[in-house]
Design the sequence.
């Protein structure tokens, strides 16, 4: 679900799902995976807030950062 939300540009919502996935993880691999995605998503939000012009350029190059529907 979190990956789908990221693809839709709903980064804040995706972060909540990654964090929840970490809480529900049963193995170390699952925890590491969920936490890694959560941290990458937090970084994406931070870049978007601090460097909106960079986020816009990355989006135009095909990246999802700051995509439409960002909440």
Sequence:
């Amino acid at each position: 679900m979190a990956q789908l939300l990221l693809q839709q540009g709903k980064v804040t919502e995706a972060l909540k799902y990654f964090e929840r996935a970490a809480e529900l993880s049963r193995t170390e691999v699952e925890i590491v995976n969920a936490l890694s995605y959560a941290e990458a998503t937090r970084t994406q939000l931070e870049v978007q807030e601090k460097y909106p012009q960079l986020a816009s350029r990355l989006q135009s190059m095909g990246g999802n950062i700051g995509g439409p529907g960002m909440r």
Observations:
- The chain has a mean pLDDT of 86.
- The chain has one domain: 2-60.
- Helices lie at 2-7, 11-24, 28-50, 52-60.
